[in-house]
Amino acid sequence: MPDPALNTTVPATKQAGLAFFDHAMNLLQELRRTQAGVIQKAAELCADRIARGGLVFLFGNGHSRMMSEEMTPRQGCYPGFVALVETALSNHAAIIGANGLRAPLYLENYEGYAEQILHGFHFGPNDAFIVISTSGIRPVIVEIAMGAQARGLPVIAIVSKAHCEEAQAAHSSGKKLINCADLIIDNLCPPGDCVLELEGLEWRTGPVSTITGAMIINMIRCAAAEALLARE
To answer: What pTM value is reported for the model?
Structure first.
């Protein structure tokens, strides 16, 4: 039976806003059905690292930075998670000109840049990483994950498997985020992220990675809190 979440055409009888809502809800149900187990494993890994005095660093460039900040700092957060935010890669104050997109897009593809970011931190043996990228192919993302593993730190990836597996690797090693992670959580987004096709619009709209990504982050947060409380 076809997955209704993958049917992207908006029926003439349905408003686009409601169609997007239905797609998003279908994806969240599918997330619960298929990813709950690995999300629980990720939460338990985070709880174990935090309980041992470690920190869980979150990294995402571009729009994925929002998932790092969804974890912390915000209401409901607690010590143990650190948003590793590189503003040069995710400052979207303007689309063109100063602080525009051309420079960040260049930097995220510049090999060696991620290691310079990591050099700014002294990581401990009990730390861990959550790396967020829907495509999972940008060199900075791949090298953050590779750098964490080279330091002996486990990596949890939040990625679109469909997008990452379909896309051509951008790193010279041929690796993608799915090749550099100890646990992989699929955000279930289609290639290109967007789920709606509207008549007269040349491209899809209705991106869903923020919706499924924020749910994953909050499921990890809540389950890790529960696991930490169980240790008391």
So the answer is: 0.90
| Angstrom distance (rounded) from CA 67 to CA 118 | 19
The Cβ of residue 157 has, within 10 Å, a number of other Cβ atoms equal to: 27
- 82-86, 112-116, 174-178, range with the lowest pLDDT: 82-86
User: Residue 167 has which token pair?
Assistant: 């896309």
What tokens were used for 70? Answer: 């969804």
**Domains recognised in the chain with CATH numbers:** 14-230 (3.40.50.10490)
Tens of pLDDT, residues 111-121: 999 999 999 99
Q: Do residues 129 and 144 touch, judged by C-beta distance below 8 A?
A: yes
Q: How far apart are the first and last CA of the chain?
A: 46
Query: Of 138, 133, 137, nearest to 157 (Cα)?
Result: 133
Q: What is the pLDDT of residues 182-209, one digit of tens each?
A: 999 999 999 999 999 998 899 999 999 9
